[in-house]
Amino acid sequence: MKLTLKIWRQENPTATGAIHTYELDGVAKDMSFLEMLDLLNEQLVLTGEEPVAFDSDCREGICGMCSLMINGEAHGPEVTTTCQLHMRSFNDGDTITIEPWRAEPFPVLKDLVVDRSAFDRIIQAGGYISANTGSAPEANSVPAPRDKAMRAFNVATCIGCGACVAACPNGSASLFMGAKITHLGELPQGQPERWSRVVDMVGQHDHEGFGGCTNIGECASACPKEIPLDVISQLNKDLRTAMKNGL
Ligand code: SF4
Ligand code: FES
């Protein structure tokens, strides 16, 4: 396949960025999107140009590092991560526009790489449980109802990629936070910090500059792990209970 790529290039966080256009030939349908960018970078290096900076790590859909707006959609046209998107989703002769995540709390570091440490600080604020150290406890000593365990497991699949934020017109991280709060709040081990967790995480979220949720639902549509929108209801319910209790 032959493609025209329009890519956001930005030297550093304070530089003014711009879209640059590249022609790329020899793209195989079975290549992943990131392998296609690798091919472009090989071409750029051979011609003495600076390769395009982009994030990736596992390339298996589990780490959440890859983060690109592709033709205006977070992670592109399929419900998957950018690294698991394949070029068979595109056609010969296509023009593809590639930009970094669009959200103020995720500032661009270089080209397509953004700083997502705001997510780390939200997790540090409350996305944890307290557990005594020592040997592993007997597994059946803290029973968890199956329906709650399954829901916790399903929402624990959130990989912290940030697509929900990039897709949201408000730049809200409510789906990400809702996934973490639901994951921990469904299990007995998550109960001791349940109410302080939601207050502290929401406080950090707002402090970082993420926007509020207005139930648009773009986040859930863009989420590669199909985290359901109702985790935001659970987040709001827990927040209301915490505030009623004076936290
Ligand atoms: S909720 Fe989905 S889109 Fe948001 S960070 Fe988690 S996996 Fe990514
Ligand atoms: S590189 Fe790890 S999820 Fe894409």
TrEMBL record:
It holds the Pfam family Fer2_3. The keyword Oxidoreductase applies. GO terms for biological process: respiratory electron transport chain; tricarboxylic acid cycle. Its cofactor is [4Fe-4S] cluster; [2Fe-2S] cluster; [3Fe-4S] cluster. GO terms for molecular function: 2 iron, 2 sulfur cluster binding; 3 iron, 4 sulfur cluster binding; 4 iron, 4 sulfur cluster binding; electron transfer activity; metal ion binding; succinate dehydrogenase (quinone) activity. Keywords: 2Fe-2S, 3Fe-4S, 4Fe-4S, Iron, Iron-sulfur, Metal-binding, Oxidoreductase, Tricarboxylic acid cycle. SUPFAM superfamilies: 2Fe-2S ferredoxin-like, alpha-helical ferredoxin. Residues 148-178 form the 4Fe-4S ferredoxin-type domain. Its EC number is 1.3.5.1. Signal peptide: none annotated. Belongs to the succinate dehydrogenase/fumarate reductase iron-sulfur protein family. This is succinate dehydrogenase.
